[in-house]
Write a structure and sequence with these properties.
By secondary structure, this protein is of the alpha/beta class. Helices cover 51% and strands 14% of the residues. It contains 14 helices and eleven strands. The strands form two sheets. The protein has a six-stranded mixed beta sheet with strand order 7-6-8-5-9-11. It has a five-stranded mixed beta sheet with strand order 2-1-3-10-4. Helix 3 runs antiparallel to helix 11, helix 6 runs antiparallel to helix 13 and helix 7 crosses helix 12. The N and C termini lie far apart (63 Å).
């Protein structure tokens, strides 16, 4: 069925142009010219800041194509599960997806470089690497060869929180035996410092926290975390989000389908993803600030900061895991070399420019300026 749909899509524009020249634009002709693609998400429909990306992408594609291309968005579990979206699109049973690259870790762990790396790139830096430092080209080289996918970075949460806990974290020993939902590289780092880290689909975290199946969890930040109700079953909310300085999402399209599009339609897909990405960059800091106030003032959530020795231990373990990941294969080596070269430059720049500014903002804020 997907093969027929794809062949139909390849020939649709030429056929549509001929029909337009031969007949008036009656309602049936307009209906026949519209092509509907299927998108699968890694999230439920009601996940703020994540599902909204998929809906914006779909909206922009339809607007930019003058209704020629429509995308029907399906939530996780409606057609395929959270971790199955990559196979579904690569194999052609769905046309495109929105997900996090870290959810591909079970198939190919180096994908996480395109999503999140502990103590890595922030949202603006990630976009800088993807758009200007060759990251997007490296991603598509690997994704096309390995998974039959064309990808576009799309969605940037910005700095996240370290997670929700039912007990205080005062030293590294407090991680020993702790059952925590954690994903990707961060999950492996947590295991190396003594925690029992498990990967759970985002929409299943609340029930696991409620039942006591896990003692702690990290998902995102104030906006999404409060929408999931984690404050009902965990008291302490820790910062900094060392594991996800930023978490980037991606739009993935079946590579054969993408190649069948006209150059103009391919540009529509690209620019729709970039537009959805730019809007999302602003969504997270706006709503996170508001919902952090709600969590603290209405739910009495206790926001804590990890001790320095804990952060240092996590950084050392993270460095080990990232180095091992870079040796996965030739794709990973090339990606890591590009990523690290820019990350080191960005860190030095940030230390010289951003860190002093944030210290100054803190001073000014506390002084009431």
């Amino acid at each position: 069925m997907s093969i027929n749909r794809r062949n139909f899509f390849k020939t649709s524009l030429a056929a549509g142009a001929g029909a337009a020249a031969a007949a008036t634009l009656s309602a049936p002709a307009i209906a026949q010219a519209k092509r509907e693609l299927t998108m699968v998400m890694a999230w439920p429909h009601n996940f703020p800041g994540l599902a909204s990306i998929a809906y914006n992408f779909s909206k922009f594609v339809e607007e930019l194509s003058d209704g020629e291309i429509a995308i029907k968005v399906h939530a996780a579990g409606e057609l395929v599960g959270t971790f199955e979206v990559f196979d579904a699109v690569g194999q052609g049973t769905a046309d495109c997806y929105h997900a996090s690259p870290m959810f591909m870790a079970g198939k190919w762990q180096p994908a996480t470089f395109f999503g999140l790396v502990p103590f890595g790139l922030n949202a603006m830096e990630h976009c800088a690497w993807m758009y200007h430092g060759g990251g997007q080209e490296l991603q598509n080289k690997a994704y096309r060869d390995l998974f039959n996918l064309q990808a576009f970075t799309c969605g940037q949460t910005g700095t996240q929180m370290a997670g929700w806990f039912n007990s205080e974290i005062t030293s590294l020993d407090d991680f020993k035996g702790l059952k925590m939902r954690s994903s990707g590289i961060a999950g492996e780092v947590m295991r190396r410092v003594g925690a029992s880290a498990v990967m759970i689909a985002p929409q299943e975290i609340f029930a696991s926290l409620q039942s006591g199946a896990i003692d702690a969890t990290e998902l995102c930040c104030a906006w999404l975390d409060s929408a999931n109700g984690f404050q009902q079953h965990a008291k302490y909310y820790y910062t900094p989000g060392w594991q996800e300085v930023n978490s980037a999402g991606e739009i993935g399209i079946n590579a054969e389908l993408f190649d069948s599009l006209t150059p103009a339609q391919q540009k529509i897909m690209q620019h729709a993803a970039q537009s959805a990405n730019s809007i999302n960059i602003g969504e997270w800091p706006y709503y996170n600030a508001k919902y952090m106030q709600t969590l603290r003032n209405e739910h009495n959530v206790d926001v804590r900061t990890y001790p320095d020795d804990v952060i240092l231990a996590l950084a050392k373990a993270g460095r080990e895991v990232i180095a091992e990941l870079a040796d996965t294969d030739d794709y990973a080596k090339e990606i890591y070399a590009s990523w690290k070269a820019y990350r080191d430059d960005a860190m030095e720049y940030s230390a010289l420019v951003d860190y002093p500014l944030y210290k100054a903002r803190k001073v000014a804020f506390e002084a009431g300026a």
